[in-house]
Amino acid sequence: MQDMEQTRVCQESQRKPRAPLNINLERRAQIGQEKRARTRAALLDTAFTLLGRENGRNTRIEEICGEAGVSRATFYNYFNNMDEVFSALSDELNHDFNRAVTRIISALPTAAERASAAVRYYLERALHDPKWGWAMVNISAGGPIFGQDTYEHAQATAGEGIATGEFEIPGPHTGRDIQLGTTHAAMITQLRNQPSPTFAASIARHVLLALGVPKARADEVVAQDLPDPLPGDF
After folding, report:
1. Where a domain ends, among 61, 79, 97?
2. What are phi and psi of 227, to 5 degrees?
């Protein structure tokens, strides 16, 4: 009889509808997104640390995974290769700074002044933050120098200088390469050595001369103080 009673109770409990699980799917999705964002940020932060060294260009995926404490499979959930890391990190490191520089120099009246100020700002930033400087140098070795935004702005400035007769160069691409290539090389020199206080202004002057700006005008431009010592909080 006792066995029959237990069987009856068990059958009745099975027939009773279960209360639905109280699962907040929206919150679970949010948690998943937050976790992905944290992992991606950790990978980029680790890449920044490794690339922010003189030999950082040789950084491998295995190093990033080891330092970040994740597997290669996890890495490939976020990036397909190191080029994608470079692109994402370039945007993270340079987007706000480039916007700040662009905002300030856009108020300058001539292309020569804008080109000079941009060169000096980038060199000054690297001088104050060598880790950022080396990261930008190493990232630039595998793509547009200092990122796509800077690449396009330098070309636009060159085009404006040609249009106004300030620059005597074959075309905007040449002007872009003069500005960015010289700044990139100068940044490496600056990071490896102790430059003089006038190093950035001297590089800006030679960039202007290479763009076809007359010597007297180039001297006049670089003698001007920068509108702001360093844009924003940089």
Report:
1. 79
2. -55, -30
